[in-house]
Amino acid sequence: MCLRERSGPNEYGTYAYYLSLLSLLSVPAQIGLPTLVTRETAGACEQGTLGRLIKLWRWALLTAASLSLIVILLATLVMPRIQQNLPAGNERVLYWGFMLVPAMVLCDVRSSALIGMGSVLSGQLSENVIRPGVLLALTALIYLAYPSFYTAKAGMAATAVAALVSLVVLEYIQRSKTPKISKNQRVEYDARVWSGALWPLGMTAGVHLINRNTDILMLGLFHSSDDVGVYRVAAHGAMLVPFGLTIVNVVFAPRFARLFASGKTPELQRATPHSAQISFAFALPVALTFLFFGRPILSHLIGASYSEGAAALSILSLGQLMNVGMASVAILLNMTGHERDTAKGVAVGAATNVALNLVLIPPYGMVRAAIASAAALAVLNVILYTSVTKRLRVHATFLFPFRAKGTQ
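Below the sequence we write its predicted structure tokens.
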């Protein structure tokens, strides 16, 4: 939501704070479903078990919808007890945001199914094209037609509508790309196995969200909404550094799953450092740009009041550059059935993140929040890299050549 220039850091900080809370609410509503759907869809397509594929999708969508409704109900019951602790005049922002939870989760499940089938571009439409496009259009409409309603509440309402529109479009795309199943094809249902894999995957997804939002939430507890708004802009700017890694993960995740399912270990070993080198090639110039020109970029593109986030932007960018250099270690573990290793590593990283933020944020603010987040990210990557090397005998950094050790 483009609330930054019109309403300033305070209004945008309020919007950012509640959006982080809603992101955390989505964790128990999806508990690893998107990752599971991508992995199982890719494996089913590789092995030709289309009956299992269709049943998986039905089970995943039903599970996501049910959990979303439970989360919304519980959140609604709890809201009256915590309203007195919410920023005055903004209680309704969170109620608008409750619509986001089922829409975001169902969008993620459908996108993951498309990615698992190899339709990477279609799977990315929701998050990178449809949702931001609709949100931008609604923001412009509010700004031009109803400027007095240009608030955090309006921003949350527009975000919810954009997510619902995205869900409708994704459903149509998935239906058009779903393979036809012959009447003789046996429909396989393996809910016990799928449910068993959800817990470590869900823990990983949940702790990842905690990692991404801990600094913002704690900054909001100890400092002003202005600081939250400035820091969130810096944090979002730093996320441009691993943008290439995000694309590589989407492309390589189903490939990792297919190679592992078919037992093609040498190809898997070669693909891993290759993915890291592609990601790092995109990340390095972005990180260097933010490191040397972060302050003028924030000042001229976002607003002079946001230039205070330049130091945080530089620190977070360096942390993300290291993250990119370690390749898709979490995705690689999850796609090869080692999601429990990922969950353990992410849990340690999250504990480090919370501890460092709790110690550094109260007295120091934004810069130390950035240091805490970057340090926790480094700890996480070292742990996951060790697990990849131990479990798969794969060298997962950009420093290794395409042909990994042990492959001929």
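Confidence is low (pLDDT under 50) at residues 1-8, 402-408.
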